Structures are given as structure tokens and as C-alpha cells.
Amino acid sequence: MVSRTALLYLSRHHSLKDFFAKFPGFKQVTHRFIAGENIDDAIKAILELNKLGVTATFDHLGESTTSKAEAEADVREYLRVLDRIDATGVNSNVSVKLTQLGLDIDEQFCLQNTRRIIESAKLHHNFVRIDMEDSSKTDATLRIFKQLYRELGNVGIVLQAYLYRTEKDLDDVLSLGARVRLCKGAYQEPETVAFPDKKDVDANYLKLMRKLLKSGIYHGIATHDLRMIRGTKEFAESEGIDKDQFEFQMLYGVRRDLMLGLAREGYRMRTYVPYGEFWYPYFMRRLAERPANLWFVLKNLFKD
Length: 304
Ligand code: FDA
Description:
The chain has 13 helices and 8 strands. By secondary structure, the protein is of the alpha/beta class. The protein has a single domain, classed as TIM Barrel.
């Protein structure tokens, strides 16, 4: 049985992308989790979601950028996305990864790039969510987030329930009044920084969810786990927190049944819609979350 650890290991070896891309059916397989290669593909997917009562967040796939020119190209792509959201009227905000915007090159350079996107979003009355990457990036990501939150306001952060440090980070972010997307965490982390057992991650998720919902700030509860979703619904009901005071969030292509069910029940629902050519690490993390997805990949690999 291929493990989560093995798939996360492979996700960091980008050269394997070319190997997988040689299979005739591979592109089709990636389309289960990725809306397409360009902004228009993502807009099409988002329009369909909007019709079903689901909002979205654009994710232009990219991470671990090592050249300033690539980071600049990503900034421009996000500026275009914000223009296109306005022009087409789709209901969506944007999500960015700081290593895509140059965090591994220079923190100040990354700060300036991220600021340009958030400033543009502000002019468009829109919102930017900063994704959280592996734990070697947490401190710098939070530094940049806090500075830009104080300067501009229309930015939120992602926190990961698998990290021991997250409860403290969450208190800190809540004291600023900022919006959080709570997720379990998608990267391979050592036991020194993250709970190794799923049951501890889940217990922490529920604990942090309760803090978020009680804060009175509008947060995103990002999960496909029925137990986390039930726990959130029950807690909100018991505390008299209305359905429009928070939102559930899910990833494109994952548990669409649950997503539509929640939207029909009147919960706010947002889908994370990735698009672009740099799909490999994102795609491998999705396989790692559910190694059974590998069967889906293998079945389709040789189809034309
Ligand atoms: P869990 O992994 O326990 O899965 C629960 C159930 O959901 C599974 O049994 C299965 O039914 C279904 N499921 C989950 N993943 C699936 C998949 N890939 N394919 C098919 N079924 C699947 N992480 C991070 O580190 N930084 C970030 O910024 C973000 N951002 C983010 C945004 C949004 C909107 C979401 C929903 C998630 C993220 N994540 C993330 C990913 C997150 O950390 C986590 O890895 C996944 O959401 C999977 O965790 P679940 O909470 O779904 O539970």
C-alpha cells in the first residue's frame, strides 16, 4: 500500500512531473482536482459553482519559486485574475502561496509582491487569503501576513491544526481581529512540530474551530471530514451562531456531494479552485490525503 509519506515525498520531486505527463490519460486525471490551465478555465469552473450557490477562491498553481522573474509573473497573473473577477462578476476571492511570490528568494521582496496583490484586491473590494505552507515557512508567513493585515486589512491567513504551535498562533491572529481559514495541514512534518496521530489532529481541529466560531469574526472551516463538519454545525447551533457567520470550504474535485449538500442546507460554501501548469506538487498532495485516489489515477492513465 502506497503511504501518505511516500506520496508527500514524491510531491517534492518535480522532475517526476515529466515522467507522469508522458501517459496519455494523465492530463484528464489531473482535471479531477485542477480546473484547467488558464484563467478562463478557472472562470468557467467558478461560474458553474456560483450557479450552485457556492463561492470560490482562485489559486494560480505555483510554489517554491527561485527566480524573481517567475515571482513577478505570478504577481501579474494575480493582478489579471482580480481584474477578470471584476469584469466577469464571478463570486470569488484569491489565495496565494508566499513561496510563489518569492519568499525563498528574499522576505522583503515577497512582502512587496504580496502587498501589490492585496492593494489591487482592495481597489477591487476583494479579499486575499494567504495559504500556509510547510512549517519551515510558518514564522515568515505570519510576519508578512500580520504586517499586511495591519496596513491593508483585506487579507486572511490559513492555520493548520496539525501543528502544536497553532493554538498560540490562532490566539495571536484573533487578537488582531483577522480572518482565519482552518485546515488540518497537508505537508509532511516531523513529530517535533506536528501531531503524528490523526485523532490528535482531529481533536485539535475541533478545539480550534470552537475558538474561531466564538470569536465573532467571519472564518473559513476548511475540511471534507464529516466529523469536523458535524462538530462545527452542532457547535454553531448550540451557541446560537447563524449559518452566515462562517463558511465551510472545500477543494475543487473533492466531496462534491458534501459541498452541494451543505450549500442546499443554507451554509455558506466556498471552493478552492486551482488552475495553471504547475500542478504537480498540488496534485500529489491531493493523492497523499487519500491514497485510494491512486486507483482512480491508475485506472485512467492509459486512456486516450
Ligand atoms: P481528512 O484528510 O481526514 O479527510 C476526510 C475525508 O475527506 C476523507 O475520508 C475523504 O472522504 C475526503 N478527502 C479528503 N481529502 C481528499 C482527497 N484529496 N481526495 C478525495 N477525498 C478526500 N493545507 C495546508 O497545509 N495549507 C493550506 O493553505 C491549505 N488550504 C486549504 C484550503 C481548502 C479550502 C481546503 C479544503 C484544504 C486546504 N488545505 C491546506 C488542505 C488540508 O490541510 C488537508 O490536507 C485536506 O483538506 C484534507 O483534510 P480533511 O480536513 O479533508 O480531512
